[in-house]
Design brief:
The protein has two domains: 80 residues, Winged helix-like DNA-binding domain superfamily/Winged helix DNA-binding domain (Arc Repressor Mutant, subunit A); 81 residues, Winged helix-like DNA-binding domain superfamily/Winged helix DNA-binding domain (Arc Repressor Mutant, subunit A, Orthogonal Bundle), CATH 1.10.10. It has nine helices and six strands; from the N terminus they run H-E-H-H-E-E-H-H-H-E-H-H-E-E-H. With 186 residues, the chain is mainly alpha-helical. The protein has a three-stranded antiparallel β-sheet. Strands 4-6-5 form a three-stranded antiparallel β-sheet.
Length: 186
């Protein structure tokens, strides 16, 4: 499992990522310099760093020095419909340690719902990984987009979308290090 900077997800949208990948997929030479990408009208320069970082982390682009090229996975992603992109992102997110940790915490909640602050506090308890308010906001936005979970803005609660049979509590607490006590469902 890999760790990534979740804060980067606050900087761009799924459309921004798709635009970059589609553009790279249509470059005749197959690669382009980062400076050329920064001049693209639909992609603001301030967003390009985080987009490139995440796309590279997820294997959607290849970056060698300051040259970018789209991978076969990235090309497929850019040419697919919205539902396929969401499915791809959901799969990619499943390989990220922080995301899996957050989903595990949600799975332990008896009601399947937890206050955003509880999720944040629980995540940071006994973990070498830390999560800020800004990180969790990015996680919430992308998690909702990719149908990983829901968010009730009024109550500031994150909730599981699939209440079916979550992974066994023993397996999850072992993975989380047995340090979590979640509040009882209200």
């Amino acid at each position: 499992m890999k760790t990534i900077n979740l804060n980067a997800f606050n900087e761009f949208s799924l459309d921004d990522l798709s635009i970059l990948l589609a553009y790279l997929g249509n470059v005749p030479s197959g690669e382009i310099s980062l400076d050329q990408v920064k001049k693209l009208p639909p992609v603001r320069t301030s967003k390009i760093g985080p987009i490139v970082k995440i796309a590279e982390e997820f294997g959607l682009i290849s970056k060698k020095q300051d040259r970018l090229s789209v991978t076969a996975s990235g090309l497929t992603f850019s040419r697919s419909g919205l539902m396929s992109r969401k499915t791809t992102m959901r799969t990619l997110f499943g390989k990220v340690e922080q995301i899996q940790r957050l989903l595990d915490i949600l799975a332990l909640a008896p009601s399947g719902r937890l206050a955003k602050k509880t999720v944040l506090d629980t995540f940071n308890l006994g973990s070498p990984l830390s999560l800020s308010d800004r990180d969790i906001d990015g996680f919430i936005a992308w998690g909702q987009l990719c149908d990983l979970f829901g968010y009730d803005k009024k109550k500031e609660e994150i909730f599981r979308l699939e209440l079916g049979t979550p992974k066994g509590p023993t397996e999850i607490t072992q993975r989380l290090g047995n340090v979590y006590t979640l509040p009882r469902a209200s």
